[in-house]
Amino acid sequence: MRPHLALIEDDSDFALMCRSYLERAGFTVTWAMDARAGKAALHEGGIDLAVLDLGLPDGSGLELLRALRSTSRLPLIVITGRGAEADRVAGLEIGADDYLVKPFSQRELVARIRAVLRRAQPPDTPTVFRIGPLRIDTAARQASCEGFLLVLRPKEYALLEMLAAAPGRVFSAEQLLDRIWGASWQQPATVIEHVYRLRGKLARLPVPAPRITTVRGYGYRLDP
């Protein structure tokens, strides 16, 4: 099935360019030129993700986003010519899954859409990973080592789960950002900080635990 996108954008030249590129990339695109048409397209259903311009002729895109988030968790990417940090933060706080400032490449838009759709997919059947003494329960979102529970923040847990799902495999910072943070507005330093904190928690366990190894120039892996 081709993912169905709602493109809510009032600039017709830009919208036609986006729609053409997205359709060639394997998406079905419904184009709406203003907030009213955008609401109608979203109300009809069958949309897998919305791409929303904040500057619409008949209202604020932020208001449309706020109204959508009051009833739905539909994946949504904000696009706009507004580069101010306040606009970006407002969109993200209201519930946008990602944010792109014009001008941007069509290739990047496709990559962002695919990343958001991946994150929105229902989780796989709950699984328990075991790497040496480390046990990760994906249903409970808990990690323990010989009965000692690790107290982890959500992103720390997600990082450990991703590494534990493929022990010995090296993941680059870019891969970790894409899978866990969406690689949208975070920096590689975010990964470095979370790896540092996670290593500290593993090291403070009263029993030997797997370790996160830095492979210089490549990324990180989990070793038993």
From TrEMBL:
Listed GO MF terms: phosphorelay response regulator activity; transcription cis-regulatory region binding
Keyword DNA-binding in record: yes
Pfam families noted in UniProt: Response_reg (PF00072), Trans_reg_C (PF00486)
Record protein name field: Response regulator transcription factor
GO CC annotations on file: cytosol; protein-DNA complex
Organism (species): Streptomyces aquilus
Lineage: Bacteria, Bacillati, Actinomycetota, Actinomycetes, Kitasatosporales
Modified residues (4-aspartylphosphate): 53
Any one biological process term the GO annotation gives: regulation of DNA-templated transcription
Residue intervals of the Response regulatory domain: 4-117
